[in-house]
Amino acid sequence: MSRTVFCQYLKKDAPGLDFQLYPGELGKRIFDNISKEAWALWQKKQTMLINEKKLNMMNMEHRQLLETEMQAFLFEGKDVEIEGYTPPSA
Q: Which domain holds residue 64?
């Protein structure tokens, strides 16, 4: 059975994640407040960021940068700025 959360990103009730995908307090906050849909949107942004900035997940600074971007995207409604990326026009 899927659980419903009030998604802070979508600002509505939506199916929540099946389990905590990120460690620590932030992971718990995401699990409690972010829907599967919003997490999937973040995953796409994260992939673009990693590729764009050539981030290395073994590098602590790179992981912190991603975490900061993730919090801004999911909880503060800030879109991720990706240089040289133009969203497809509708």
A: 4-75
Whether 11 is covered by a domain: the verdict is yes
Strand partners of residue 6? 13
Residue type, 19: F
pLDDT digits (tens, 9 = 90+) for 29-45: 999 999 999 999 999 99
Provide the token pair at 25.
């307090």
Burial 43-70 (b: 16+ CB within 10 A, else e): eebbeebeeeeebeeeeeebeeebeebb
**86 part of a folded domain:** no
Number of CB atoms found within 10 A of residue 16's CB: 22
Domain assignment of residue 83, yes or no: no
pLDDT above 70 covers a percentage of the chain that reads: 90
Neighbours of 79 (CB within 10 A): 9
